[in-house]
Design brief:
Helices cover about 40% and strands about 25% of the residues. It is α/β, with parallel strands linked by helices. The protein has a domain of about 170 residues: Vaccinia Virus protein VP39 (Rossmann fold). Strands 1, 2, 3, 4, 5, 6, 7 and 8 form an eight-stranded mixed β-sheet that branches. Strand 1, helix 3 and strand 2 form a beta-alpha-beta unit. Helix 2 packs across helix 3. The protein is globular, with a radius of gyration of 18 Å. The structure holds ligand GEK. Ligand GEK binds next to helix 3 and strand 2.
Length: about 240
């Protein structure tokens, strides 16, 4: 990694911290930022590939919603060659998609991969055997989440799989506090200073809105999924699978 790819976005005092947006300054440091900020991130990405191998059916569609630089897309592409499947990688940040296009150009593969610039709440989902929401639902306004999950359910084929990975909120508050402190210690261990941790927290306040595991599971069941369960958790980050 070069020094310009190291996440230092919040290392200097910013005064009034602006709200976090996925612009080109974030794109430049994104892989470093997410690896050093989300405990278990690489494990979740690797297992997304494993789940794809199990669930992706011939001639079906996969959706990577909030794809950023395509970590999940790349993880599943490796595993589903020769199934004539198509991956739709969707993001509303043009800066992310521009960079992803160059990454994909450098790593040709037989699985068709289409990039879509748009809001994941607006795109059509059809003939899906796998839908991935890796750390994206947390940025969707709370009031729009049930409708999005419902549309994903409708677009999935029977026995299709939805993966949702998120930052989570816990009750009681003492447990939430403990897991949050453990997360901050993880970030310190990854080289972030207390200033970086606190300024990033201010930047994502009300931009990233975590929900409880139970809220996710109740909503998935209400939307019709026959099963929904967490398969991974590290501190206040976790991943669920839901099967139609
Ligand atoms: C990974 N999945 O590496 N519509 C489209 N894109 C959106 C929306 C929306 N409504 N809201 C946010 N995004 C990736 C990481 S990052 C997670 C996902 C993080 C996009 C946003 O532009 C960004 O690229 C991505 O979702 C969230 O596994 O930074 O914590």
């Amino acid at each position: 990694m070069t020094d310009s790819n190291r996440d230092k976005l919040f290392s200097k005092p910013l005064g009034k911290v602006p709200k976090f947006v996925f612009d080109s300054s974030v794109v430049d440091v994104f892989p470093d930022m997410i690896q050093r900020s989300v405990p278990g991130y690489q494990t979740i990405i690797n297992h997304t590939g494993e789940l794809a191998d199990r669930f992706v059916e011939e001639n079906s569609h996969c959706y990577d919603l909030g794809c950023s630089l395509g970590a999940s897309t790349l993880a599943i592409r490796e595993r589903i060659e020769n199934r004539n499947a198509t991956i739709y990688a969707v993001d509303n940040s043009q800066a992310m998609l521009d960079k992803l296009a160059t990454i994909l150009e450098g790593q040709p593969a037989s699985t068709a991969t289409q990039l879509i610039k748009g809001d994941i709440c607006d795109i059509q989902i059809t003939n899906a055997s796998l839908v991935i929401l890796n750390f994206t639902l947390q940025f969707v306004p709370l009031a729009q989440r049930a409708e999005l999950i419902s549309r994903i359910y409708e677009g999935l084929n029977t026995n299709g799989c939805l993966i949702i990975s998120e930052k989570l909120h816990f009750e009681p508050e003492s447990l939430n506090q403990l897991l949050s402190e453990l997360h901050h210690q993880f970030k310190r261990d990854q080289g972030y200073s207390d200033l970086e941790i606190s300024q990033k927290r201010d930047a994502i306040d009300k931009v990233l809105m975590p929900e409880a595991l139970e809220t996710h599971i109740d909503r998935l069941k209400q939307c019709g999924f026959k099963s929904a369960s967490p398969w991974f958790q590290c501190y206040n980050f976790g991943s669920l699978i839901a099967i139609k």
